[in-house]
Write a structure and sequence with these properties.
alpha/beta, Aconitase, domain 3, 29% helix, binds 3-isopropylmalic acid, binds iron/sulfur cluster, iron, EC 4.2.1.33
Length: 424
């Protein structure tokens, strides 16, 4: 069995499960964000009165934080009331940050667990060897009622990434490149395991970027075998007992892909699909109106660090708006302490409070018709960040920072000491 199958077997009380099998499994933790008031309504429609375990549920107000409309304020109010009524242990209110980052920082993610949330990017937690996946409101309500959920055991695809990333090339570039090669449906209802020397060399934050964007390939969940870095991180955050379930040597992956990233260039995903990634040198000179640095795939401490380093004493370009949103309160605090926020503010950035911001087009920096945005977020569908007539380019935090200074798509390596870049 694959480690993911072992996680599912253990949670369903079976000795063995096989890909394609439908099983009923115990969930370790459920998480609801502020777009899913329906999960509370469904809970009551299913005749729920008391949640299965108030210590294993979190409500997170992140997508509309702070509330930009009366409707979202009312939804958040209802959620706070439900949390109180039910004695639910975790309420991460509008000051906390993006759910996927907050859960990890709060020590609610550990190897071998099953974490289900009302958000597709819950695949992020594969970076910790956890089985994370997103569901809709009724499935989540079922978990709140029973602590269990049905699963179809997924096939697993192996993506092996080898090589040493060039200076200025980040995990976002790697995953955009993989998406451009494999497309957006390569892993529909499958799991993606990332492996290889590049993945092993990556920090926890970088691994989270890979796993987060597994869902952009259609993946149900993702996985990276936990190593010392993972264990050290998880232990520094939580005191849960966990063990690491290993994939059997004779496990057969449903497909295997191998990438070498030694010579990978910074990538840019052109509008309007995440798999439109190309080498940045093919896109130079495209004029940009807004740069967004933030989200669950581009707003971590390391991301703000590289952005601040690249921007340094420069000012942002006169025709650019730079919106920066730390992924969590912790990231905000640390980036204040380390001076990144001061650098960014002095350069002309607009900083808003931790949360999803304009990533899914709800507030804090929407785009007008005809505008162009370069963003560290994960999706560039038409209308994703405002007008359907705006163009969204997906880039790494390093690239976003270079664009903010230069006003057009720019290779970040121009601004990084000792980075090599061949002009084409
Ligand atoms: C909750 C939801 C609208 C959503 C998701 O499921 O991923 C959002 O976070 C996104 O990134 O599109
Ligand atoms: S930051 Fe963007 S991708 Fe992440 S959970 Fe929020 S809306 Fe979804």
């Amino acid at each position: 069995m694959h480690a993911i199958e072992k996680i599912l077997a253990r949670a369903s009380g079976k000795k063995e499960v096989r890909a394609g099998e439908i099983i009923q499994a115990k969930v370790d933790f459920a998480e609801v964000n502020d777009l899913y008031l329906q999960s509370i309504k469904s809970f009551y429609e299913m005749k729920g009165t008391k949640v299965w375990d108030p210590n294993k549920i979190a409500f997170i107000l992140d997508h509309y934080a702070p509330a930009p409309s009366i409707q979202s304020a009312a939804n958040q109010k209802s959620m706070r009331e439900f949390v109180k009524e039910q004695g639910i242990k975790y309420l991460f209110d509008i000051n906390a940050g993006v759910c996927h980052q907050v859960m990890v920082e709060e020590g609610i993610v550990w190897p071998g667990m099953i974490l289900i949330a009302t958000d597709s990017h819950t695949t992020t937690h594969g970076a910790f060897g956890a089985l994370g996946t997103g569901v809709g409101a009724t499935d989540l309500a079922t978990i709140m009622l029973t602590g269990e959920l049905w699963f179809k055991v997924p096939d697993v695809i192996k993506i092996e990434i080898n090589g040493k990333l060039q200076t200025g090339v980040m995990a976002k570039d790697v995953v955009l490149h993989i998406l451009s090669e494999l497309g957006t449906d390569v892993a529909v209802y499958k799991a993606i395991e990332y492996t290889g020397s590049t993945v092993r060399d990556m920090s926890i934050s970088e691994r989270m970027v890979l796993c987060n964007m597994a869902v952009e390939m259609g993946a149900k969940t993702s996985y990276i075998i936990p190593d010392e870095k993972t264990i050290e991180y998880v232990k520094s955050r939580a005191d849960y007992e966990f063990d690491i379930l290993e994939t059997d040597e004779d496990y057969k992956y449903s497909a295997e892909y191998i990438f070498n990233v030694d010579n990978l260039e910074p990538q840019v995903a052109l509008p309007h699909s995440v798999d439109n990634g190309v080498d940045i040198q093919k896109t130079l000179e495209i004029k940009v109106d807004q740069v967004f640095i933030g989200t669950c795939t581009g707003g971590r401490l390391e991301d703000l660090e590289i952005a601040a380093e690249i921007i340094g004493d420069n000012k942002i370009h006169k025709d650019i708006r730079l919106v920066v949103i730390p992924a969590s309160k912790e990231v905000l605090e640390k980036s204040i302490e380390k001076g990144y926020i001061m650098t960014l503010v002095k350069a002309g950035a607009t900083i808003t409070s931790p949360g999803c911001g304009p990533c899914l087009g709800t507030h804090q920096g929407l785009l007008a018709p005809g505008e162009v945005c370069a963003t560290t977020s994960s999706r560039n569908f038409p209308g994703r960040m405002g007008s359907t007539e705006a163009d969204i380019y997906l880039v790494s935090p390093a690239t976003a920072a270079a664009i903010a200074i230069n006003g057009k798509i720019t290779d970040p390596r121009y601004y990084i000491k000792n980075a090599k870049v061949e002009n084409k």
